[in-house]
Write a structure and sequence with these properties.
Elements: H1 6-21, H2 25-28, H3 38-53, H4 64-88, H5 96-101, H6 106-124, H7 129-146, H8 164-180, H9 190-213, H10 225-239, H11 242-248, H12 251-262, H13 264-270, H14 286-311, H15 319-322
Helix pairs in contact: 1-3, 1-10, 1-12, 3-8, 4-6, 4-13, 4-14, 7-8, 9-10, 13-14
């Protein structure tokens, strides 16, 4: 059996934690400033997607329909399951446009479009992925300076423009590049990589804070993706280090990291309908309690998604696989 990539599993786990945490302002109350990390979580999500897609060679352009079909079969049963839950249990109106074209959330739309470009890059331009990565980054910077922006402007916040189509594609391309790299030199002290990642994250937040408060520095905002790229790079190296592999290979560590990280898509899609302030009297214990609730709900969504997926196949239902943990 091929050994799992521990670094990617850890990054998926971190992405889930950060994305969920960024939406918990009401649970933090007067400490709402701690509800952050969404931009980092999104970047990790697209990085991991690009990485795993390029672990296997993409060589045949004629196979694109079947390749894309597999991506649809991986994502859309979950989208359908969430739409059913939203409509049947929470009374939300999930029309066909919302389900098919938008996938329930913006990032599903993004990644389904990215898949098209990633596939043909893998077929025709795999050896030029560095050049493409630089080109997309430059195009994003040019778009940033050419567009009309109000102050303060954030590429990562609620007022983000179509610029994010290029922004997150940069992270997906960076993940694809890392997925094709056969060498990954590890330093002797893995905590050094973690410290470097934290340092880059501090720079990222500092750049965003300064460009949001000082209008004269607003032009620097677009370059904040650079320390974020470096942070993800060092986080991946840290996750691939001996110390994290030891943690991952413990029974509890393996279960928590792989189970939660494996529910990345389901957690992203289902968490919004679960937000409540009824647990605030338990603060700060309300934070981990709510996270556990989200993980359980995401697992149930995955079971329903597998049921939907198996329903449209000729093979008999595989009930064991339907409820399996991984």
């Amino acid at each position: 059996m091929k050994e799992r990539n521990v670094g990617i599993d850890i990054l998926k786990f971190l992405a889930v934690l950060l994305i969920t945490n960024s939406h918990l302002q009401f649970l933090y109350g007067k400490y709402s400033m701690l509800a952050t990390g969404g931009a980092i979580g999104n970047a990790l999500f697209f990085f991991c997607s690009g990485f795993t897609l390029f672990l296997k060679p993409i060589e045949n352009a004629n196979d694109f329909p079947n390749w894309y079909k597999r991506r649809i079969n991986r994502i859309y049963p979950t989208v359908f399951a969430v739409a059913i839950i939203f409509s049947a249990i929470f009374g939300l109106n999930c029309d066909i446009n919302w389900v098919i074209l938008h996938g329930g959330r913006w990032f599903v739309t993004y990644i389904m479009v990215y898949y098209v470009f990633i596939y043909f890059i893998g077929v025709y331009f795999k050896r030029r992925i560095n050049l493409i990565l630089v080109g997309v980054s430059l195009a994003m910077c040019i778009w940033f300076f050419a567009m009309d922006r109000s102050f303060p402007f954030s590429m990562y916040g609620d007022n983000r423009e179509h610029l994010t189509w290029l922004l997150y594609f940069v992270f997906m391309l960076f993940g694809a590049k890392m997925g094709t790299s056969s060498f990954m030199k590890q330093c002797e002290y893995q905590w050094r990589n973690l410290l470097l990642a934290i340092f880059c994250i501090i720079i990222f937040y500092t750049m965003n804070g300064l460009t949001a408060r000082i209008e004269q520095l607003g032009f620097l905002h677009v370059f904040s993706f650079i320390p974020l790229l470096l942070a993800i790079f060092f986080l991946y190296l840290w996750g691939e280090g001996k110390s994290m592999k030891l943690l991952y290979n413990t029974p509890i560590g393996h279960f928590v990291i792989r189970f939660v990280g494996g529910l990345c898509l389901e957690i992203y899609l289902i968490q919004n309908c679960l937000f409540t302030d009824k647990l605030n009297f338990l603060f700060p214990f309300s934070i981990p309690i709510f996270f556990v609730i989200v993980v359980i709900a995401a697992y149930l969504v995955r079971c329903l998604a597998r049921f939907i997926s198996q329903t449209f196949k000729e093979a008999p239902y595989n009930w064991k696989k339907m409820v399996s943990i991984y």
